[in-house]
């Protein structure tokens, strides 16, 4: 591992675990940032801890913010998480699992930590291929945020920092992401992607995230190792 620090947004899911592995592979000294933001469950935070320990980070911070005060999402409010039989049934509408401005909020925290670390690199596992149509997962959003971020900090104004937002998975299918992660040694049995897990922590199998994840493994002729792992 090199001397260059990077902040990685780590949810505990398949995509963010892969983004962390990419950052490590590229030689960054990694600092993982997760959030307890009022989501329906904390299973994903347990997964984030497992992933951070397995892949290796300098420090893993879980920041507490409460987006339940705004609601507006099935993940932070009273709306029901939508369930479907197949990814093809999801339609073209942005689903109720969209959390208003979530990636903007998360990236802002990452930006603040990057400035204090003297880091110029932030990794986020957003994907614009096999995903639910969230507006804050698009390439144009990432490009616009990077431009804004370089106007937003003392370090940037003084010329001490030129921030780069890395989205290494943004143009990959879920299957391609899994292939990449497996090539980097990611243990996907440690991850958790479900929006609406059972009380035991087991994945529901029918929310948007579960469907895309299951299809990705199926396209590779693989079983999802997390399906048989503890939650």
Quick structural overview:
By secondary structure, the chain is an alpha/beta fold.
Can you tag this structure with a few keywords?
231 residues, alpha/beta, Rossmann fold, 5-stranded parallel β-sheet, globular
Any overview of this molecule?
The chain is α/β, with parallel strands linked by helices and 231 residues long. The chain has one domain: Rossmann fold (3-Layer(aba) Sandwich). The chain has seven helices and five strands, in the order E-H-E-H-E-H-E-H-H-E-H-H. It has helices spanning 14-25, 43-55, 102-117, 139-149, 154-157, 174-183, 208-219, and strands spanning 5-9, 29-36, 59-64, 121-123, 164-166. A five-stranded parallel sheet has the order 3-2-1-4-5, with helices on both faces. Helix 1 (14-25) runs parallel beside helix 2 (43-55) and helix 6 crosses helix 7. The longest helix has 16 residues, at 102-117. The two termini are 30 Å apart.
Order of helices and strands: EHEHEHEHHEHH
Rg, please? 17 Å
Total beta strand runs: 5
CATH superfamily: HUPs
Unreliable residue runs: none
How are the SSEs ordered, and which strands pair?
Layout: E1 5-9, H1 14-25, E2 29-36, H2 43-55, E3 59-64, H3 102-117, E4 121-123, H4 139-149, H5 154-157, E5 164-166, H6 174-183, H7 208-219
Parallel strand pairs: 1-2, 1-4, 2-3, 4-5
Helix pairs in contact: 1-2, 1-6, 6-7
